[in-house]
Structure formats: structure tokens, C-alpha cells
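Backbones bend. Shown next:

***
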Amino acid sequence: MPTIAMSQDRQTVLTTFETTPGTCQDLVDLLTDAYESFISKQPGFIAAGLHVNDAQTRIANYSQWEKREDFQAMLRTDEMRKRNRVINDLCRSFEPVMYDVAAVF
């Protein structure tokens, strides 16, 4: 389970996907499979969550990694590059962005 805390010992990545109601569930299924069978088994992975807006036009993904380099290494694997090509076909765009936690309330 993700833990939101101000610390220097983890990398937070937020990824947003623009999709359509007709492909939203297919994309959630692909992302779920990617996390269950591959991403969660990569070195440095801590936790992740998927969120879908009520219109089913956006998916937000929150993930945590031990180090920024762990996330980057996962993205560079042949497996994830292949999966990202399929994911890209189901959405208008997606963008992973690395963040530092600035405050917790």
C-alpha cells in the first residue's frame, strides 16, 4: 500500500492517461496485468494505485519506488517498452512524471 510521507528515501511517480469510456476498462485491465505480472516484481518497486474518474476519460496512477533509477530501469526493459506500445494504442496520451512529496496533511 502506498504511504504518502515527506522523505528522501522514495520516488513518487504520477502518471495520467487520457482515454475514452469505450476503452477505459480495457486500459485498466492492461495496467492491472502490467502491475500484477511485471512492474510489482521489479527491483525498487514499493506500491501503486490506479484511479479512474467518474466519466471514465482519465486514469491516474500513483506509484512509489525506492529510487528514481529503479523506475527508469523498469521503463527501459524490453517488456515494459512492449507493454507501453499497447497501452499507448488505448489512450490519447499518457505521461509519467516524477514528484517529491512537498507536504502531507
The helical segments are 24-37, 68-76, 78-89.
